[in-house]
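Troubleshooting: if your tokenizer reports a length mismatch, compare your output against this known-good record of 141 residues.
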Amino acid sequence: MSLCNGGLMPNKREKAHRKEILHAVREDERRKVRNSLPAAVPVLKALFSYVDLQVRSVECDHTLRHVRDFIRSQGLPEDAVVGWLKNNGGYCDCEALMNAEQVVQEAVPGYDDLAPTLVGSVNSGPPNSGNSGPPKEPHKR
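Known-good structure output:
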């Protein structure tokens, strides 16, 4: 450290070391979030996409109605997904979008470029965008 303006100032090497530590701490936090996710990231993206479509057409009723509809339609572990959403600020459909999805976006590199995927889907395109209910798998012949 060098003496500058009467106080101690870190030198370039110390600044670089501090920056490396900060980067490592942030990456560790992102890794912990990724490890805590209750479903695969593309499935969560499909969940958020579905809920977004629903709350755009019908105002949020301050419940997780659309989240729960999607979870049930996809056979996801409801308690685990709802618990994770609530632990990350998603106490209703609109908060799930505003808060919990942001947590995923910050923790998963390339999240915005990911295609939403339904559970067991071979098609990685967006979920059914109709407002008649949660997305369903196409009929297999």
